[in-house]
Amino acid sequence: MKGHFQLKVEDILSRKHFENTIVIAGEEGIHRIVKWVHVVEVTNIRNLLNGNELILSTGVAWQEDENLFISMLKQLLENNAAALCIELGTYMTEIPGEVIDIANQHQFPIIIFQQEVPFVEITQDIHSVLINQQYRMISDLENYSQSLNKRLLTIETYEDILQIIFSALDVQIIFRLKDQQYEFVPSISSQEQSSIIHCLQEADPLPTDHFAYSPIYLFGQEYAELYIYSKELPINEFDLLILDRTSTALAQHLLRDLFVEEKKRVEEFEWLHGWLAGEHPNESITEYLVEHGIKNAANDAVVLIAKLTVLKEKPSQDITYLKLLFRSVFEQHGCAVFSVEKRNEIIFILLNNRTKRNLKERITNAIKSLEDSEFMRKQNSGKIFIGAGKFIDNLNDLHKSYYTAKETLNIQHKLTMGKIYHFYEDLHLYRLIALMNKHIDLQELVMEYLLPVIEYDQKYNGKLLETLTAYLQCNGSKQETSKQLFIVRQTLYHRLQKIENLLGEDFMDHEKRVAIEFMLLVKDYLTPSHTQRRMDLNDSKSFYR
Predict the structure, then answer these.
(1) Strands across the sheet with 172-177, in order?
(2) Are 177 and 290 members of one domain?
(3) Are residues 96 and 220 both part of a single domain?
(4) pLDDT of 37-64, one tens digit each?
(5) Regions of the chain where pLDDT drops below 70
(6) pLDDT per residue over 469-504, tens digit each?
């Protein structure tokens, strides 16, 4: 497959019916590639060409008008035709000097037949060569694909795949994993590498005649880059097809490596579980991180717990894919990631891997990116909740973040808010409510303040509780409340009067208002969300079943 054959103008000059031809202009362009043959006897051809056509003509359409000839030639140049072959004697006896000058200027071959020739036979001859060339290309491509797929079963490193594409194309192969250095196959000097990288960066956008590029995507994100570079010959269609097949094989191999790596991480469960329980001293933690290539990690970290409420036909495969997806996204946002599976939860330990200490902001952006991923959008049969614990600045305190992450998740399942994630530090009063709920009958306390409104809504569907909540959230602004509830001011006034009659004229006084607002949060906490009710019905069905 090296030097895969491409038909050029110079090859056609040696074929039948071209024995007595003369290249009268643009001889420097006889290396142009020919992909098809087209007979042209009209003057407007812009919409008839796709590029690289060998044009055959008698010149009948422009024989008496030099300007038409020049116009036609410019159209050929604009559409990247390969060459123009003109039969002299029948309609034309000479080629105008200006036409020759333009052709020489653009290295566009003009070939003349000095006698009458059968265009049909020329077309059939060249097309048969082109069709055979296409057939050979398809056959070689299929053989390459089959050979590559077989070798994928035994290949151990992606470097082996790079050697395979180099053997097939005999061009410079350039490969780069995310955030790593460029690799070159075959190996070349650092000076040559720098020169190619400079050309690569200048050749934007790709592809160009001498560069071609194929991104390698894993989990919807670009994971690696594969380039081919041909210094002498331009990149052809066959090269691009081989590049595409190889990038697919590389993606499969890299994904397999990630799965194997993730399986190995299962063996780390016991140590990580001990870390979450606060059993390891600082020296042991530092040693563990160094063993895993993390030498200069910052001390700030946080624990995230992802709770899975989905039931799938292939749960173990989805769990592995989900862990890889989370790892990939969090690493993209500057976190070193360790994970532990526990029943229907995945516990993620996130260490700040950057000097900038905006860990919460980056984690929030990462979670939003996860929400938008294709995998998450397909989770129609269930939901994933994420609880983030307390942010710590000492890795020996990781257990504190873990326990608060569990508390965050427990609180989140009781809330009616639609977010799939919460941070411990944002729950504020809900943390106090959760603590109080362990020792006090909060339901009785709620009824003491809100029972009249609740009973009115149950009897008349008056939406007073919803109105009260919005009115307090808007700090007593009637205009903002009516906008938030999408009701007219008169309706709002009527509801507020009812609330005042039920709760008393002083319901907006400071102390009573604070108590009512607190009771509304307690009611939200005590009222099972739709998701929680569904989970209660299915609590006996394990995610891994």
Answers:
(1) 183-185, 172-177, 221-229, 211-218
(2) no
(3) no
(4) 999 988 888 888 888 999 999 988 888 8
(5) 1-5, 204-207, 265-267, 296-297, 310-318, 378-382, 416-418, 528-545
(6) 999 989 989 999 999 999 998 999 999 999 999 988
Strand partners, 113: 21, 87
The closest of 406, 411, 407 to 526, measured between CA atoms, is 411
CA–CA gap between residue 407 and residue 329 (Å, rounded) = 24
**Burial category of 506 from C-beta neighbours within 10 Å (exposed 0-12, middle 13-18, buried 19 and up):** exposed
CB neighbour class for 64 (10 Å; exposed up to 12, middle 13-18, buried from 19): exposed
Do 34 and 52 meet the contact criterion of CB atoms below 8 Å apart? yes
Contact 327, 337 (CB under 8 A): yes
- Asked whether 331 and 367 are in contact (CB, 8 A), the reply is no
Q: How far is Cα 545 from Cα 541, in angstroms, rounded to an integer?
A: 7
Tell me the C-alpha distance between 100 and 11, whole Å: 22
> Measuring CA to CA, which residue among 90, 88, 91, 110 is closest to residue 26?
110
Residues 409 and 509 in one domain: no
353: in domain: yes
Evaluate if pTM is beyond 0.90: no
Residue type, 418: G
Helix 398-412 vs helix 269-276: crossing angle, to nearest 10: 80
Nearest to 428 by CA among 521, 357, 307: 521
Per 3-state DSSP, the chain is made up of helix, strand and coil in percentages (nearest 5) of 50, 15, 35
Residue 454 and residue 465 in contact, taking contact as beta carbons nearer than 8 Å: yes
Distance CA 310, CA 317 (A): 13
Range of the domain at 207: 152-263
Residue in the block written with tokens 């979670």? 367
Q: Which two tokens stand for residue 243?
A: 């590049």
d(Cα 238, Cα 260) in Å, to the nearest integer? 33
